[in-house]
Every structure is written in C-alpha cells, then in structure tokens.
Write a structure and sequence with these properties.
This protein is α/β, with parallel strands linked by helices. The protein folds into two domains: 114 residues, no CATH class; 117 residues, Zincin-like, CATH 3.30.2010. The radius of gyration is 24 Å and the shape is elongated.
C-alpha cells in the first residue's frame, strides 16, 4: 500500500463570500434519511467495485472526503444530499475517488452547486452571554433601554477566539443580520476590561443593527457619517477609543 492511500483526500466548494452584514436566504433542503443513505452506500460501493464504509454528513463546505484505513477498507465521508443524485453523479464521484479525474470532479461540483447555493451560511457559533467576568445580556439590556428605546430584539453571545497567537488585527464585535446576533470577542471577558468599554462595543454593534436596514445594500456594515455621528454621541465613545489604544498590544496577543 502506497503512503498516498493513507492520506485523507477531499473535495470542497467555496462558501458564499461574506461582505459586511449582507445575508443569504437559505431554503430548507430535502430531508435525507437513513434509508436513502443506505441506498447511496450500496450504489457507491457498486461503482467502486469494493466494500466501503460510508458516513453521510451535513457539512456545508466539504462535499466528499476519503481515506483508506491500515486494514484496507476505504472510508468515505459524503454530503447527505448526494443520496438524492442520479447514477451519473454517483458514478462520477466513484471515478473521482479512484482516478482523481478532473472531468469527474467538475461533474460532482456541478451537482453540488445545485444544493450548496440553497444552504446559506452556517449558523455562527457563540457562547452564552454570561462570561467569567462580564454578562453581555445585562449590558445589552442597559444599552437597549438607554439608546434604542428597547427596540433591539436580537441575541448576543461571546464568540470563539483561539488563544496563544499574536495578531495584526482583532475584531472585538460583530453583527450578523441573518441570525440577528451580536458576538463579542472573548478577549474582553477579563477582570481588567471596564464594563463601560464593553457597553460601548455592544452599542456599536446594535447601531449596525438599527441603521443597516435603512442603507443601500452596498453600504450595509459601513461606518457612514450618520453612523459616526451617533457613535460619537455615546458618552463612552472617547473613553473606549482611548482604552483600546492603550491596551492594543495586550489585546492583539490574546
């Protein structure tokens, strides 16, 4: 057995490009149950001419991956929607697995594009609002009452940020219009981060939520003059900018 046979191989599609807060309307995909997956298992094994281990996935990006185990069994992971494909697609997938044939790859990509466009972007991952030191839910309620007359109805949580590497930039907060969700970087869940600073960062993202629907699509997510004027009117605007500037090195080395 050659070393290449032990290396996982995969076929992926690019995700839709994320620009600002533009959303993608997702349409529910057909349900693929265990019986359909069992049929796909048999069909692919027949095309490959050998027994296989097949796992159906809901992965939005990796369509197909495989590796041959030490004992020789071919293990395949395949997006569940392929169970609904006709025999020509399954045959192309088998040919791509066996030979890496570019035309087979293109054929599988073409089929996958038909359902990938309807999948939208994956739901953003986030942690609960109550952190180790700060409660984002409480901060949001305060900002909502003081500056938005209680009109904000979205959610909030801590994002996932890997530790232990030096960065050149850091996004402290984000607003996702598709899921009506504010996420705040966990670097700010620390005892030396003033609650007022967190309050302004949450306000900043709530301001995106309030103003973006009033903007032209190409301007959403941008800091327009109206955005900047309302931002500067916040009582913690200057203090937050000064605090971020003074603590920039520590934030970037989280």
């Amino acid at each position: 057995m050659s070393p290449l046979e032990l290396v996982p191989v995969q076929l992926s599609l690019p995700l839709p490009e994320v620009m600002g807060t533009t959303s993608v309307d997702a349409v529910p995909l057909p349900w693929v149950g265990s019986r359909s997956l069992s049929r796909l298992h048999r069909r692919l094994a027949e095309q490959l001419g050998e027994p296989i281990d097949l796992v159906g996935t809901n992965n939005r990006r990796t369509l197909l991956s495989w590796r041959r185990a030490e004992e020789g069994l071919l293990s395949v992971r395949m997006q569940r929607q392929f169970a609904l494909a006709d025999d020509s697609v399954v045959s192309a997938a088998a040919r791509f697995i066996q030979t890496r044939d570019p035309s087979a790859r293109a054929y599988v990509h073409e089929y996958a594009q038909s359902f990938q466009d309807r999948m939208g972007r994956p739901r953003p991952r986030f942690r609960r609002p109550r952190g180790d030191y700060h409660d984002l839910g409480r901060i949001l309620r305060t900002q909502n009452g003081q500056f938005f007359a209680g009109g904000f109805s979205g959610g909030i949580g801590w994002s996932f940020g890997p530790r232990g590497r030096v960065r050149r930039s850091l996004r402290l907060g984000s607003w996702n219009s598709e899921y009506q969700l504010i996420r705040v970087h966990p670097v700010l869940d620390a005892p030396d981060v003033p609650a007022q600073v967190l309050g302004f960062i949450v306000f900043h993202e709530m301001l995106h939520a309030a103003l973006d629907p009033l903007m032209a699509p190409e301007d959403r997510g941008r800091h327009t003059e109206e955005f900047r004027e309302r931002e500067r009117a916040h009582p913690e605007h200057a203090r937050t900018e000064d605090w971020i500037h003074e603590n920039l090195d520590a934030l970037l080395s989280y």
